[in-house]
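Subject: Sanity check before I submit

Could someone independently write out the C-alpha cells for this chain? I want to compare against mine line by line before I put it in a report. The sequence has 249 residues.
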Amino acid sequence: MNILVSNDDGILAPGIALLADACRTVGSVTVVAPDREQSGTSHSLTLHRPLRPTHRPDGAYQVDGTPTDCVVLALGALMKERPDFVFSGVNHGPNMGEDVLYSGTVSVAMEAVTLGVPGIAISFAGRHPETMLTFRDLLAQLVKRITEVAEFPKDVLLNINLPKIPAPEVKGIRVTTLGSRFFSESLTRMKDPWGREVFWIGGGAVTWTGDRDSDQQAVADGYISITPLHMDLTNYAFLETVRSWSLEG
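---
Independent answer below. Compare away.
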C-alpha cells in the first residue's frame, strides 16, 4: 500500500513526523510538504511562479508552495506509483466547524479526493506537541482501520480531530457533524514602526455552537471526532426554491 503524507504546518512540524510514522505501520510512505508554515492557505494553488521541490536527505520532499501544490506535485511528478490514500496532518491545532473552509490541512485531503484518491485530514485540538506525540499507537490503529475500508466514497473525505488530552485519557471515537464557531474581535488595528496603520487578522475570542453530535462537542467531551465531508456543496433541498425566483432565462 502506498500512502502520501502532507500537511500545512511545514516539513519540520512534529505532527507530520508522527503521522508518517503511524502510516508506515500499514504501507510505504512518501512525505511531500511545504517548506514553511502554510496554515490558513485553504485550497490555494501557486500559479504565478514555478515550484521547486527539494528532495531531502531523509527521503521526504519539501515544496516552496501551498499544501494543495504538494498534492498536485506528488501525484503528478514525485511519486513513482499513485498513492492508495492521502493523509494530512497531524495539524497543530483543531480544524472543526468553519475551519474546514480555511484549513490547508483539510485542503490536502480535498485535493486528494479531487484527484481520485481517498483523503483524510487529522488535527490535534491542543497546542502542546508532547501531548500530541502520545497518540502514536492510537493513530496507527486508526490508520489501519481506515485503510482496511473496502469502499471509500469517491467524493467524500474524512476530517478527524484529536482531543487535547493524552491518548490514554481518550474516551473513544464519535462520528460527528460540523459544529459552528464565531470569532469576535479577531481584527486588530495597529501601527507599523513608521506610524502607518496596519491590521492583523487572527486571535480574538471563539464561541462554539453545535449539538451533541458536533465535532466540537465530541472533542470537548474527550472523544476523537470523525466527520465525513462531502465535496459537493450544492444545497439540493433549496434548488426548487431558487428556481421559483425566476432567475433563469
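---
OP: Matches mine. For the report I'm noting this point. The chain has a mean pLDDT of 94.
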